[in-house]
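Hey team,

Sharing the Heme-binding protein run so nobody has to redo it. Sequence (868 residues) first:
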Amino acid sequence: MIKFSLSLISFTLVFFGLKNFFSEPKIQRVSPTELTITNFAGPDVTPSPACLAVAPTGEVYVGVDMIGSLGKDPGKGHILKLIDKDNDGKMDEHVDFAEVDNPRGIIVQGSQVYVLHTTFSKETKQATGMNLVVFEDKDGDGKADGPEKPLIEHISNAKYIRERGTDHATNGIRMGIDGWIYISVGDFGFHDAVDRSGKKLTMLGGGIMRVRPDGTEMEVYTHGTRNVYDVAIDPYMNVFTRENTNDGGGWNVRFSHHIQSGEYGYPVLFQNFTDEIIPALADLGGGSGTGALFMDEPNWPEQYNHVPMMADWGRSMLYIHRVTADGPTFTQKDEEFIKLPQITDLDVDGSGRLYLSAWDGAGYSGSPNKGYVVRAVPNNWTYKAFPDVKKASIKKLTELLKSNSAVGRLTASQELVLRNNKQAIAAALKVASDQGLALDVRIAGMYTYAQLTKENGIATLVEFTKDNAIKEFALKALADRKANIDKVPVEPFLEGLKDPSLRVQAASIIGLNRLGRPEVANVLLQTKVPASFTAPAKGTEGPHATPNSAIILPHLAVRALVDLQAVDALLAAVKTENSTLALWALRYIHTEKAVNGLIENYKQSTDEKLKQQILVTLGRLYKKEIAYDASWWWGTRPDSHGPYFKAVSWEGSPIIEKFLKEEAIKAGAKGKQFYVDLNARQRMDIPEFAEEEKVAAAEEPKIDLDKIKNKKGQVGKSSIEDVLLAINKLQGDPLKGKNIFNNQGCIACHSLSKSEKMKGPFMGQIGSIMNREQIAESILKPNASISQGFASVMITAKGDRTYMGFITEETAAKVVVRNIAGEVFTIKAGDILSRKEMETSMMPEGLANSLSYEELASLVSFLSEQKK
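Structure output:
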C-alpha cells in the first residue's frame, strides 16, 4: 500500500484482523466519552482505501487502491464518491467518480477534484511515473465529465515504481489558505517533473513541493525528508508532517515543522552534519506516518481543536500533536487520540464531520476484502448544511470567509478567487483590513486579496507590512509568487529583519531569498549564529530530532545566500565577525571562484582557528553530489554518513587536493591527524590522508536453519488458525522467548539493539509497530508480505560470483550483503553485473515448527516488548 518502510519484524507485514469489520468493529476510541464513531463504508465498497478527501458539503471521495505499495498490475484503483443522504453517519449511495491507479492524494474544490496517482502504459502495462491531475464534474452527476487534465507529470521515479511499487513515491496533497497545493514527496524524488507551463524540476530525495491549482509555478518548498505521506497546514501557513521509520537506520518516525527553503537532512546530513539542518521537533520511535489534517472547526471540543492530527499506519493510531510556539518554530507534545487498524487518511467537512480510512490488514499489495471508512463527530454534533458557494452572493461569501471554520474560509476564498471581479477584491480587502477580526480571518482575507490582485495588489500588501498583527503574513504574501517578484520592493523585508518578532525575521529572510537580489547579501550575513551550531564529535550522532529554534534564522540566511550565489560577499565576510555564517554558506557553492577565494583568505589569515575552518570548508567542497538522473535510489536504509551519497569530483577538486597536500606537508607528522580526520569525515578519498581501518572481526553465529525447520513440534502439526487461537490465549514468558529468539536462528538476521551491527529487519522497535497476532502470523507466514527493503536480492558480480541475501549497507562504492546463514560479503559497486530483487522472503517457512504453543507465545511476548 502506502509508503511504509516501517520498523517491522523481519519477516513480513501481516493482516490486522481475521473477522469482518462489520461483524466485529475494530474501532477503539482513546476518549470514548467525547466522540461518536460510526461505520460509514465497508470493504464491499471501499476496500484498500489509500486516501480520502471530503467536499465542504460532506461528499466523501475515497481513493481505492488494490495495487498497494508493492503491486505492479494496473486496473485496480478508482475514486469513489460516497454520499450520506440522511446525515446519519452511514453511506447511502456511492458513485464511481473516476478510474485511476494507485491514488495517493485527493483535494475537492467545487466541481474540481485533484488527484495524485501512478500512471501506467496502456501498451506495456508498466508504470510510467506519477501525475498530479484534475478531474471536473460540471453537471454534478458524481462522475468525472471527461479524462483527467495533467497539472504536473513525472512527479516520481518511474524506474523504481516499476521495480518496487509506489512505496517511496509521491503522496498526499493538501491546499493551504494561500491557494497553493502542497505535495508530499517520498524519497524516490523525481527527475524532470514538468508543470503546465513547461517548467521542469528535479529533486534528489524527499521533501515538500507545491504548485498553483492551474498547474503552474511548481517549486520545491522543503527538502531532506524521508517518507512524508501527507501534510497538515494550519491557518497561519505552518506546515507539519509525521514521517516514516527506516528500520534501525537511525531515522525514526519524526514530527517536523516545515519552514520554506529549509533542509531537514535525510539521509546524508542527519547523523554527522546535524549542525547544518533544521531538526525535527520529536523522534517518536518506530511507525509509519500517513494522513494528516490540521483540525480547526468550531463545533469540535476545544481539547481536540486547533491541533495537527497525524495518522500512523504502523501504530494504527491517530495522534494529536500539541504544538507550542518557540521563536520562529515550535515544540510539541504528542498524544494518542483514535485507534484505528492501519489508518491511512483523514479529512473533515464544513459541518465538522471527520472521516477516517483504514487499510485494516489489506497487505502491501492491496486486498478486495479489507478496509473501511468511519465517521467521527463530537457527541453534541448536529448537522448544519454547508452553503452552495456557487450560488452564494459576495456578501454570503464574505461571511463565510470570516467564519471560524478552516473549511469555510478556504472554500469561500477559492470561490472569491474564481469570481475574480471588483466585488470579490473589495470584499477580501475589507476582511484583511479589519483589525477587529481574528488574525486567522484577516490572513484568509489577505491571501485571497493577493491571489486576486497579483502585481496590482503589491502596494496594498506593502502597507499591510506596517500593521504589526499581520506583518509576517503580508511579507509572505508579497514574496509568494515569483512571477511578480521583480515588482516587489526590498525595503519591507529589510525592515522586517529588525523586527522584535523572530517569525517576522524568518519571513523576511525567506522573502529576501525569493526576491533574488544579491545586493542584500551583506545584510543577511549579519544573522547571528548560535552556540548550538556545532558539528557532532567524531564517532557520535548529532541531535537531529531535538528542537533548536536558535538555528532557524541562520539556517534560512544560509539557504538564501546560497540561492543568491553571493560568492563575492561571502568571501569578503570570511575575514570578518560574520565568518562562521559565510563559511557555512560556502560549503554548498561549488565554483572555482569560491575555492580560489577561500585559499586566498587562508593565506592572508594569521588566525589559526579561522584557517582550520577554511580547511574544513575546502574539504567539504572537494567533492559534490552527482547530478540526479533517476537511474538509482539509495534504498530503505541508506548509507547516512554524508555529506554526499554519490560523491563525484569536479573542476575545483584538483585545486583543493593540491592545496591540502601542501598544507599537510607543512603541518608535518604532528598535524597529520587533522587531515586524516578531515579526509574521513568529508569522505574525500585522498590516498595520502587515508588511515587503514582496523575492524575487529565479529564472531557471527552459525545457524543451521534447515535443521531447525525440519523439526516438528506442536506448531508444525497444527493449522495456522489453531496456532493463532492458542497464542491469543497464552501469554508466554518473555525471558524464555529471548532464548528461543537465539536458538531458532533469529539472531542470524536480526538485531535487537541499535548498538549492534544492523543486519536485516530491526527487531528493537517491533513491539511498537505490530501487535501479538501480527507478530505470530508473520513468523508463521514469512512470504505473506515481505518487509520493505528486506526482500532477498540476487547479485551477480565479476569473476563468476553470485550472492543472495539482503542488503545491510550500501554506498556509492560498495554493497554489503548478508545471507541467510549470517555470512557477510562486501561487493564493489563496479563489480556488480546484475541485481534482482527476489519475490520470496529470505526467511524460510517452518522455523517455528519445532516449538510448542507455549514456546511460540513466549517468543511473541519477547518480541512484543521490544519498543526502543
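The chain has four domains: 35-291+299-378, 389-526, 578-700, 708-865.

Ping me if you want the raw files.
A.
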